[in-house]
Structure formats: structure tokens, C-alpha cells
Input
Amino acid sequence: MIVNVKVTQALIDTGDPCNPYGCPIVVAITNALPGSVVGVTNREIAIMINGINQFIVPPWTVTQFVNAYDNDRPVQPFEFELEVNE
Output
């Protein structure tokens, strides 16, 4: 299943830098996949859906965002697609 993930300015403003569970991307993925448990680093997106863990290499835009956000550099809202197993 392909999921469109939207990282909004509101999520950026309320996110928690350097927290793999409080990143705006985590909230955006959780919004797109209700009931999932998500963790994000610049090298991996971990998603648990229906008790099954999935580990996904993030798109380059996600890696760039995480690196900038965690280092207090400016970031902009963006969207990306994520392929997950249901």
C-alpha cells in the first residue's frame, strides 16, 4: 500500500527535535496510518502495524529533513510517499 505523508508547518512547529518518536514525520505517518506505532531516524523508518514491524529506508527528502530539523536548521513543509505492508 502506498501512503501519502504530509508534514505540515503545524507539525514542524510542535515537533520535538532529536526525538525519534516526537519528530513531525512520526506524527505525519501516524496521521496517515492510524493505529500504527512509528519511529524515525535519518537512516530508518520503523512502523508497527497490527503487531507486525516494518523497517523502511527513508526517502532522501526525509533524511534531509531529519538532519536539518535535528540540527536546528530551517525546514519547510513537504509530502512524500511511503510504501508499507498492511
The chain has one domain: 2-83.
